[in-house]
Specification:
The protein is an alpha/beta fold and about 375 residues long. It has two domains: about 200 residues, 3-Layer(aba) Sandwich (Rossmann fold); about 160 residues, Glycogen Phosphorylase B (Rossmann fold, 3-Layer(aba) Sandwich). A seven-stranded parallel β-sheet has the order 3-2-1-4-5-6-7, with helices on both faces. It has a three-stranded parallel β-sheet with strand order 8-9-10, with helices on both faces. Strands 11-12-13 form a three-stranded parallel β-sheet. Helix 6 crosses helix 10. The radius of gyration is 21 Å and the shape is globular. This is Glycosyltransferase. One of its GO terms (molecular function) is glycosyltransferase activity. Its EC number is 2.4.-.-. Keywords: Glycosyltransferase, Transferase. It holds the Pfam family Glycos_transf_1.
Length: about 375
């Protein structure tokens, strides 16, 4: 059986790309079709990975100014020639599910979320709401929603990264989805002794919808030490809000991140209605408890008072209140580590392989 993988973009490295890499480990001979490919941003992918970027979308000019050419993406994915493959697995939070397949081909879509920007969820930045963008964006989004729903109807089987995402798929596409949680590569981690110190940790891409300012404001109000790992479009604005107890680490190596997870009192996670949330699982794998908002995918991973705590009011004051309660509670690192094992690479590979094999009726 010939297998192909399709992914939205390969010009950055995050949870979706780690998931793609995990699927590729199951099907190492499968080529990866995408729009833009930047090998320098993909640490897990070797030169031996066959990545086939779109000729239309990866030309120099379009690649450099890709955002204004988003309207081309439906056409780009529909034009991909996948005729020689029996099984096509798309990994997407955007347009990759729009590939066109024949009736004798099987298209399984691993959906990280329906496109956030199309269904009124916050996105990477707030620029779409600027007055001179908004009218144009509104018209374009209406077209994209029609196309997105039609593209979803061509998918044979949906897999969701959480129950939260499965509910979105049901609401917007009227389709059922199998839930298979994405993996955290616990097996390859350096074992570090838990050594909590007097600081809280935040690890995040600095995007508008992540609302990192909630944690910064909480640190400013309480005088608690907060270490922030990550970069992104909101970095300059967020640094301007930071008080003297906020430390910025920027991009860090895996070794440094492991140290921070092992030493932090807790990970603070400020996303509301998160699709799933892999960073909290990573923190738990080092025995680090998590403080997150009581919503979205975190409800499926955090067990309150076992491996973390929730804040209910989505403000810095709400977070301050929970931090106060957290400081008076004792967490056992082993409970967090045990919870993280439920999301291991081995568990993911077994569940995903079993699901695909059941659908194809053969062992791949």
């Amino acid at each position: 059986m010939k297998v192909a993988l399709v992914h939205d973009f390969l010009n950055t490295y995050g949870g979706a790309e780690r998931l793609l890499y995990s699927i590729h480990q199951i099907y190492p001979e499968a080529p990866i079709f995408t729009t833009i490919h930047n090998p320098s941003k993909l640490p897990d992918f070797s030169p031996n990975h066959l990545v086939i970027p779109s000729k239309t979308y990866s030309t120099g000019f379009v690649r450099r100014f890709s955002k204004p050419f988003t309207f081309l993406l439906p056409l780009v994915f529909e034009q991909l020639d996948l005729s020689e493959y029996d099984l096509i697995i798309s990994s997407t939070a955007g347009f990759a599910k729009g590939i066109v397949t024949r009736s004798d081909q099987l298209h399984i879509c691993y959906c990280h979320t329906p496109p956030r920007f199309l269904y009124k969820y916050e996105g990477e930045s707030n620029r779409r709401m600027v007055w001179y963008y908004a009218p144009f964006v509104s018209v374009l989004d209406s077209y994209f929603r029609i196309w997105d729903e039609f593209a979803a109807s061509r998918v044979d089987l949906f897999v969701a990264n959480s129950q939260n995402t499965a509910r979105r798929i049901k609401k917007y596409y009227r389709r059922e989805a199998e839930v298979i949680y994405p993996p955290v590569n616990i097996e390859s981690q350096k074992i570090l002794e838990r050594d909590p110190q007097d600081f809280y940790l935040l690890v995040s891409r600095l995007s508008a919808y992540k609302h990192v300012e909630i944690a910064i404001e909480a640190a400013n109000k309480t005088g608690k030490k907060l270490t922030i790992v990550g970069t992104g479009p909101e970095e300059e604005r967020l640094k301007a809000l930071s008080g003297p107890t906020v430390t910025w680490e920027g991009f860090v190596t895996d070794e440094r991140l492991a140290e921070l997870y092992s030493q932090a009192k807790a990970l603070i996670y400020t996303v509301q209605d998160e699709d799933f949330g892999m960073t909290p699982i990573e923190a738990m794998s080092y025995g680090c408890p998590v403080i997150g908002h009581r919503s979205g995918g975190l409800l499926e991973s955090i067990q309150e008072y076992e491996n973390g705590m929730f804040f209910d009011e989505y403000t810095s004051d709400g977070l301050v209140k929970t931090i106060g309660s957290f400081d008076s509670h004792t967490f056992e690192p082993q409970k967090a580590k045990e919870r993280a094992k439920d999301f291991s690479m081995d568990v993911f590979k077994q569940r995903f392989s079993e699901f695909v094999n059941t659908q194809t009726h053969i062992s791949i």
